[in-house]
Amino acid sequence: MDNFRSGHGRFLRRGGAALAALLLAGLGAAPAVQAVGGSEAARGEVVHRVDRGALLKVTRVADLSRGEVAAFLAAGKIDTGTVRYGVTAYRLTYRTVGTDGRSTTATGLFVLPKTSRGRALGLVSDTHGTMVHRDYAPSVGEDFGRLSPYLHAAAGKAVAAPDYLGLGKGSGLHPYMDTRSAVTASQDMLRASRTAAGREGRKLTGDLYLTGFSQGGQVAMALAKELRKGSGGVPFRVRAVAPVSGPYDLSGEEIPALFDGRVNDTSGIFYTAYFLVAQNRLHPLYKDPAEAFRAPYADRVEALFDGRHGEEDVVAALPESVKQLLTPEFSERMKHPTGGLKEALEANDGACAWKPRVPVRLYAARGDTDVPIGNARSCAAGLAAHGARVPVLDQGAVPHTESVTRATPKIARWFATR
After folding, report:
1. Which H, E and C letters describe 397-412, residue by residue?
2. Which of 150, 188, 192 is nearest to 61 (CA)?
């Protein structure tokens, strides 16, 4: 079984019902919901900067002891040596902006360690990897997406894990691999988290640590770049950046790898279909799905990415390879992009074109056949071209999902030293 089928959202849904029960038991009574000033953002309303990140609702979704956190992480094959505290987790609903720049709402997971209330906490921004079903998002799904947030919180930091647009309880469809909206949703999650911490009687130091996995690794780098520019008015100081296995170079690494065998077929067809359908809503890639996808897949592919199908559903409805999925003409366009496709790729390929002022470590795995390690090496080269030497830390000949389960405890220890 390839890595895609065994990871990315199936941690508890496949054979992990006992841990789901553990999490629900840890929550105890029905979730505590607190409305926070004001109604849901009106659709069509342009959001001013003062509105972005406004906290609308807080819902407690988990309350775990130190032992329960350790059991959850151990089931995910994560080293529990950094676990020092239990955690309390909340779903935050907050104002942000959509891809059209207008008002919308998003949700995210906010996790607090059970430390003394007088202790000020650093904040980790933890951006998740590719998810197709909206209920897989960290604030809703009790599975893979919570492993890293719980580990960082159990190590003693607050954690903000945005669901992104169109996932979790947010409105609309998810604009997969739209870096701009993922960054704004992440920025606004930081603002909402600061408010939520205050309402829980907790204080944040203002120190911010950035991490993320897969799609979220690319988002973490793009967020770091944006915060480096001082844009967005986010009241935090970035102290360290440690993304894992991000697709930083779609044009130079990820797309060529789809066609030369470095990306396994199952993951390749899933990522390709998801990317093209989502990006076509933002850029003019095709007018009719049949321009990009072969029959019979052209008639079904867009409906598969409605936020209500799981990865297994999507993969079962598609062919076995990218070659069988795409028309010959569109395959050539992928290899030599022009027009809207070129715009979509360029919009996602600049996350490493800047010079960090804080320590950065790039974690990846040479055995990864979802996001080949060449992406991290390309990112390091891009940062070096701007005057920053950044290490690529190879996690070994392991698959995509294992790259993050190996890296996350190391990142938590590193963040503790910053």
Report:
1. CCCHHHHHHHHHHHHH
2. 150
**Residue that is written with structure tokens 């992990």 in the block:** 16
Tell me how far apart the alpha carbons of residues 410 and 415 are, in angstroms, rounded to a whole number: 9
Q: What is the DSSP string of 142-188?
A: SSGGGHHHHHHHHTT-EEEEE--TTSTT-SS---TT-HHHHHHHHHH
Among candidate residues 225, 152, 217, 157, the one with its CA nearest the CA of residue 187: 225
Q: Which residues contact 378 (CB under 8 A, 6 or more apart)?
A: 248, 249, 252, 253, 352
CB 146 within 8 A of CB 154: no
Query: What is the rounded distance in angstroms from the CA atom of residue 78 to the CA atom of residue 408?
Result: 8
For the whole model, what pTM was predicted?
0.91
Give CA angle at 142 (139, 146), nearest 5°: 65
Average pLDDT, the chain: 90
Look up the CATH architecture of domain 250-348: Orthogonal Bundle (1.10)
User: In CATH, which of 3.40.930.10, 3.40.50.1100, 3.40.50.2300, 3.40.50.1820 is domain 3-249+349-417?
Assistant: 3.40.50.1820
C-alpha–C-alpha distance, residues 376 and 253, integer Å: 10
Taken as a whole, the chain contains a residue count of 418
Structure tokens belonging to residue 392: 């690529």
pLDDT, tens digit (0-9, with 9 covering 90-100), for 129-185: 999 999 999 999 988 999 999 999 999 999 999 999 999 999 999 999 999 999 999
